[in-house]
Amino acid sequence: MDQSLSSQFVNLLAALLLLLAFAMLAQRRVLTLIKLFAWQGAALTASTLIMAYATGQGHLYYSATLTLLLKVILIPWILHRLIDQLQIRWDIETLINIPVTMLVGIGLAIFAFALATPISEMAGSLTRATLGIAMASVLLSFLMMIVRRKAVPQVIGFLAMENSLFFAATSATYGMPLVVELGVALDVLVGTFIFGIFFFHIRDEFESLDIRHMEKLKED
Amino acid sequence: MEIALVLGFPLLGGLLLALFGHKRWAPELNALMSLTTLVAAAALTRRVITGGPMTALDEQFFVDPFNVFLVALTAFVGFTTALFSRPYMRIEEHHGRLNAARLRLYHSMYQLFSFTMQLCLLSNNIGILWVSLEGATLATVLLVSLYRTPASLEAAWKYFILCSVGIAQALFGIILLYFAAEKVIGPGGTSLLWTHLYAVRDQLEPTVLSLAFVFLLVGFGTKVGLVPLHNWLPDAHAEGPTPVSAVLSGLLLNVALYAVVRSKVLVDGALGRNFSGGLMMGFGLLSVVVAAFFLSRQKDIKRMFAYSSIEHMGIVTFAFGMGGPVAAFAGLLHMTVHSLTKSAIFFTVGHATQKTGTQNMADIRGLIEQSPAIGWGLALGSLAILGMPPFGVFTSEFLVLTTAMHEHPWATPFLLVALGVAFAAILGKVQPMVFGETNLRRLPHAPALVPVFVHLAIVLMLGVYIPPYLVEWYRQAAAFIG
After folding, report:
1. Which chain B residues are closer than 8 Å to A194 by Cβ?
2. For chain A, how are helix, strand and coil distributed in percent, rounded to 5?
3. How far apart are CA B328 and CA B334, in angstroms?
4. Which domain holds residue A161?
5. A2 falls in which pLDDT band (50, 70, 90)?
6. 3-state DSSP helix/strand/coil percent for chain B, to nearest 5?
7. Cβ atoms within 10 A of the Cβ of B94, count?
8. Is the pTM of this model over 0.90?
9. Is residue A47 a part of any domain in this protein?
10. pLDDT tens digits, residue range A141-180?
11. How many CB pairs under 8 A join A and B?
């Protein structure tokens, strides 16, 4: 596989990542949201593998394996078990105003590209446009966390943001040093567990996972 | 060697207390592990003071006067807070707010929290710094919700989400930093080491670094509690157990600020103009002013002192933003005295709320009559934090103000007004709590007041006389920050 072909592949996967970020923004069903998140992880794994192959950076293979295990298999599995136990598997969230959210999302994507242009031009690696895409997906995940009113989708938004950050790291810099990636992965895993514990506490206390019930602490 | 001990003791303590944290002697073990950490930190400090900066374990760890000063402070306040938490948590258990399983979680997470903070300070790798700072959030989030009340769950959720999102921004900043560094140093582990980054900082790409700094400041600034990213802070401080409020306020905010200052030094070297300093001054000043005006509106005593922490972190951020040896010296001194005074205040506030059974300031009255030590502790602590001479806070605030008048006169009125408003607000609320009529019950365990007065005595000493070796130490650290 020559450089231009692999570069095209990574760009394709980057586009896919952005598309998935938009899809998650508009998705009402919790179960589908988890599936989309797993697909995002799969796209991330594939792009990391291609980067590893094209650049000959050995540690990217470990990074891809880690992503596969953690973000395509383990975390979606944990989330599946959680929504089963919480009995919200078929939950549908009423999202207000999807078109407006999407328009804001498009605005954010344009802003991210504008912000990334001067930096992308310096990128020596085989993927130039991807830094903008990564930044756009970070902002889109951020937006998703803001507009969601339920606890589980908020957490998926956070995990999607983490995915986008990993994509930024692999596409712009051939990945962070392995020790850092391992540490970040550990944090994400522990964080997911704590979120899981939290879901049960919140449901027990408020009898709902709707965080609108949690707006007592305010300034008078 | 000392580094391994400073990190090893709290880690070991976390593991031991995860097994035995519910036993009757667990609070003593917690204090003992904190004491050993403090001894190790003292040994490390001694070594750095005499031998100069050092690196260890393939340059993964790095100690210089700046971070060793925070290591020592963190270990010291960690130890005194463990002493305070001994009777405090027993009383909470006696009042039926906690059970054995929660106490085990508390003790174990307390030690792990110390571990993550020390790792954050000692790591030479900015990536590991990020990992451990996020680890510190993870360790404390279950402590904030320890009482499992609706309000504490809400506070913990807010804390978790806001700090995780904030720190995700910092990770993006680190990726950008790595992107710039890798061009100069080449790919691999060394491109994220502070020591290597500082060596080449004038060659790093300025546009990338300025963008990186914005992300780093927003990310770590969320943890420092800078306005407008401060929303989690008052809730987390008010709803968690008081020892946790004391270490969050006295230590975690310092550690997050440490990360900001390290980034600033790096970025200043690359940019050559005061881009980062301007941003920090802006955020700092905004925090001081907004927090001061929020102080007078508080009803909950812990919330009020949480806002006071935002205000003081704003002062320190502003001082570091101004830069220069005097301002940096003042910033370091203020970090020290704020952390000692604020934790002392939280100790007294903790016992006061246990005595009265409420955190509502309107219901706390006449502390001095019922238990003079708690009353005097709160009164003196409040005077100290408000910057009354002869306490150390006065010295550092005075230095910040005079430097500001000299170099950025426009900022002085804002600072003075904010300090005045804060003074009126806190004094007006503390005065009736300390004096006034009351009939209060006795606590089932003797309150821990030694840490309070030890802290206040140190702050008083720092206001009257700073020992020459300490001055030298601050100077060395300040020279590095510049």
Report:
1. 138, 141-142, 160
2. 80, 0, 20
3. 10
4. 3-215
5. low
6. 80, 0, 15
7. 14
8. yes
9. yes
10. 999 988 888 888 889 999 999 999 999 888 777 778 888 8
11. 131
Does residue A220 belong to any structural domain of this protein? no
| Cα dihedral B341→B342→B348→B352 (10° resolution) | 150
Q: What is the ipTM of this complex?
A: 0.92
pLDDT band per the 50, 70, 90 thresholds, residue B379: very high
Residue B472 pLDDT grade (very low, low, confident, very high; cuts 50, 70, 90): confident
Residue at B254: amino acid letter: N
Q: Would residue A82 count as lying in a domain?
A: yes
Search chain B and give the residue with CA nearest A121.
B208
Cβ pair B256, B219 in contact under 8 A: no
8 Å CB contact of B172 and A197: no
Selected residue of B123, B137, B148, B179 to mutate for chain A interface (largest A Cβ count, 10 A): B179
Closest residue by Cα to residue B14 from B29, B1, B28, B35: B29
Measured distance CA(B159)–CA(A3) in Å, rounded: 45
Q: pLDDT by residue (tens digit) across A61-118?
A: 999 999 999 999 999 999 999 888 888 877 777 666 788 889 999 999 999 988 888 7
pLDDT tens-digit profile of B206-221? 888 998 999 999 999 9
Q: Is residue A106 part of a domain?
A: yes
Give the one of B128, B161, B176 whose C-beta lies nearest to A154's C-beta.
B161
Question: CA B379, CA A44: separation in Å to the nearest integer?
Answer: 57
DSSP conformational letter for B187: S
User: Structurally, how many domains does chain A consist of?
Assistant: 1
Given an 8 Å threshold on Cβ–Cβ distance, is B130 in contact with A180?
yes
